[in-house]
Amino acid sequence: MAMATIPQPDLAMSTTAQETPPAMPSEEPKFGGFTRFEIELEFVQSLASPLYLNHLASLKYLESPPFIAYLSYLQYWAQPAYTKYLTYPGPTLKNLELLQQERFRADILSPDVVARLMDEGAKSAAEWPSS
Asked: Whole-structure pTM over 0.85, yes or no?
C-alpha cells in the first residue's frame, strides 16, 4: 500500500482497541477506507526511517505519554504472524525496539544519531545477500 504521505498515528483510538493487535486483514471496520491493520502496518514500517524518527522527535511526539504507549503497543509486530507483512523487518523492528528507550527517544533529535542510523542501514543493505 503506497500513499503519498505517512499517516500520523491516531492517538484518539480507544484504549480497548489498542490493547490487542488488529485481526489480520478481513472484515475489519475501515477508517478512511483502510483497516486498522493496514494503517498500523504503514505506520510501523515508516519507523524504519531515521529521518522520520527525527521528524517525530522534532514535533515532540516522542515525549508524549500516549504516543509512547502506542509505540509499546506496536511491539506485536515482532511476532512472526505479523512480521511477515513488513517490507523491511530488520530496521523496522530494530527502531521500534530502540524507541522503547527514553534515552534513544531524546538522542534521535541529534543529526549525528540520524546519520549513524542511516549509515548502518546503508551498510546492512549493501551487505545483504543478493541471491
From this structure: no
Task: Provide CB contacts within 8 A for 27, sequence distance 6+.
Answer: none
Q: For the ranges 54-58, 88-92, 94-98, which has the lowest average pLDDT?
A: 88-92
CB distance 37 to 25 below 8 Å: yes
**Which of 82, 8, 3, 96 shows the shortest CA–CA distance to 49?**
96
How many other C-beta atoms are found inside a 10 Å radius of the C-beta of residue 61?
19
Total domain count for the chain?
1
Quickly tell me which residue has 488488529 as its cell: 22
Specify which residues 31 forms β-bridges with.
34
Residue 57 lies in a domain: yes
- Is 77 among the domain residues? yes
Per-residue pLDDT tens digits for 67-86: 999 999 999 999 999 999 99
Task: Give residue 49's domain range.
Answer: 33-122
